[in-house]
Amino acid sequence: MNIGLIGGTGPEGRGLGMQLALAGHDVIVGSRDEGRAIETSRELAATCGSEQTADRFAGTTNVNAASQCEVAFLTVPYSGMLTTLQTISRQLRGKICVNTIAPLEFVSGHVRAISPSTGSAAEEAEREVPEARWVAAFHTVPARGLLRPGSRLNTDAFVCSNDEDALKTVIGLADEMQGIRGVNAGALENARYLEGATALLISMNRIYGAHGSLKFVGI
Ligand SMILES: NC(=O)c1ccc[n+]([C@@H]2O[C@H](COP(=O)([O-])OP(=O)(O)OC[C@H]3O[C@@H](n4cnc5c(N)ncnc54)[C@H](OP(=O)(O)O)[C@@H]3O)[C@@H](O)[C@H]2O)c1
Questions:
Q1: Closest residue (by CA) to atom 18 of ligand 1?
Q2: What is the pLDDT of residues 67-124, one digit of tens each?
Q3: Atom of ligand 1 nearest to the CA of 12
Q4: How far apart are the CA of 218 and the centre of ligand 1, in A?
Q5: How far apart are CA 89 and CA 207, in angstroms?
Q6: CB-based burial, 24-38: b 16+ in 10 Å, e otherwise
Q7: Which domains does the chain have, with CATH numbers?
Q8: Which of 19, 73, 137, 190 could disulfide-link to 159, CB 3.0 to 4.6 Å?
């Protein structure tokens, strides 16, 4: 599969790109700056080690990445979400688009979840580009773990969507990543709880000086 990473030069995009390339997918790193995307794709190729995996990376602008991919991952900060979507809305039409964004603010050393008026960043993005097939996922999977080839995270990626087929595809992609299990977390509106849980997770990791994540037990 051809995967596009919109804002793929940051830790989350890099980590997802690394895992998806290791799983055998072609990864197009997108950026506002083509040079930065190419540099990131070279760095990822070097980190991956094997020549076969290294060949799976390319770097280009966000617009080209959205245009060339089959599945897009949106990995920009919430503050840049709408501006970014406005530049790639045409390219995303009909495509599965995975929103990883957790809207957060840092106030006096504390992290807080921001609640968009739509209920979640996922629904806000869907309202902006209704022609895309929206999925929200990977909020509680730490980039740090994704970025280490060979690390076994032993965590869940909670996946929300109103599109059954897109939901299954993204659960499948999560299952292909090392140490990650894709879990069906229901309708897209449930993304608000995952986005909020990210603030809790960051706070708890600070308390424990850890890099923990979330796992759903009992299934
Ligand atoms: N970090 C994690 O552990 C983690 C885990 C789960 C989910 N997430 C979510 O994943 C998203 C990305 O996280 P991150 O830590 O990788 O973020 P980041 O490093 O702050 O940003 C990722 C990339 O987005 C682009 N960008 C930055 N500001 C932008 C703006 N105003 N408009 C458009 N593009 C902008 C930059 O790429 P260019 O300058 O190259 O365009 C940057 O490299 C966030 O929404 C976060 O909530 C993160």
A1: 10
A2: 999 999 999 999 999 999 999 999 999 999 999 999 999 998 899 999 999 999 999 9
A3: 16
A4: 33
A5: 40
A6: ebbbbbbbbebebbb
A7: 2-208 (3.40.50.720)
A8: 137
Over residues 4-51, the pLDDT tens digits come to: 999 999 999 999 999 999 999 999 999 999 999 999 999 999 988 777
Q: Which two tokens stand for residue 51?
A: 């020549």
CB-count exposure of residue 145 (10 Å: 0-12, 13-18, 19+): buried
The residue count of the chain comes to 219
The answer to whether the beta carbons of residues 2 and 69 sit under 8 Å apart is yes
**Residue ID of nearest Cα to ligand 1 atom 13:** 12
The minimum-distance atom of ligand 1 relative to the CA of 142 is: 3
Interatomic CA distance for residues 65 and 86, integer angstroms: 15
Q: Which residues contact 215 (CB under 8 A, 6 or more apart)?
A: 154, 155, 156
